[in-house]
# Entry
Amino acid sequence: MTKTSKIVLAVLAVLLLAVGGGWLGAGMRGNSAEASSSSSSSQGSFIEDIKKRGELRVGVAIAPPMTTQQPDGTLGGPNLIPLEELAKQLGVKLVPVAAEWKNIVAGLQANRYDFAANLDYTVERSLAISFTNPVYEYQGVFLVKADSPFTTSDQILKDGGQIVTAQGAAPEATLKGLTSNIMPMDSYSNAVSAIQAGRAIAEFTDLPTAESQAQADPSLKIVVPEPEIYSGTAAYGVPAGIDARSLQIVNIAIERAQKSGALAQAYAKVNYFEVDSLGDLQKK
# Structure
């Protein structure tokens, strides 16, 4: 074999090794990337984003006793318990973000937070966002002055007086189908003030909120509609594009909080009662 032939063969050998090494390296890199991708997808991209950020952000609009402002100014309440436990499992910090009912969905769409707390299922909302499984269910009720003449929902609706609601809250939409005498308010505290000032004859709201208001002010009583005119399902609002795996993980966290008794214990601490156990809170 000539010297030139040896050089040519050496060059060819180097080229073959380089190509083979490239393919092998690419294969190894590909396998590594696939493994990383598989690890990430096992928890879902939505959950992975929360873990990378180190924060689980939840939009909170005030609706005592389920969502409240604590004495130290922070936002909390029984409704956040499943998310608190989820944050612990993920090793991240729970960060409540102040919101209002009239814009809580918009805040979720704008990525101000990952979850919208204590949010009722409605068709209008479901066109814009997705929902988790229910955290709890409740009935819509009226709140009136204890010395008012009203003991039934029919009496309230037929009176013709103004009925106050929390602007953007789900019960408001139901009431619009029953009367035009609606006075929307930007907060539940302002709704109570309207009743006390005589500007409204009643408030239509969710049972937990009505209980909290009546417990705080004995001059207010609850009127339970019979038959019921609104039944709500409170869940968490989540982004419309949430992946199925992440949603499953969140729903498991909700179920565990329910079945472990953590939610029931929290409801008892804030004196929340079922609609058939209102006692003196109900208008007789």
About this structure: The radius of gyration is 28 Å. The CA atoms of residues 110 and 239 lie 10 Å apart. The longest helix spans residues 3-41. Confidence is low (pLDDT under 50) at residues 6-12, 14-30, 32-40.
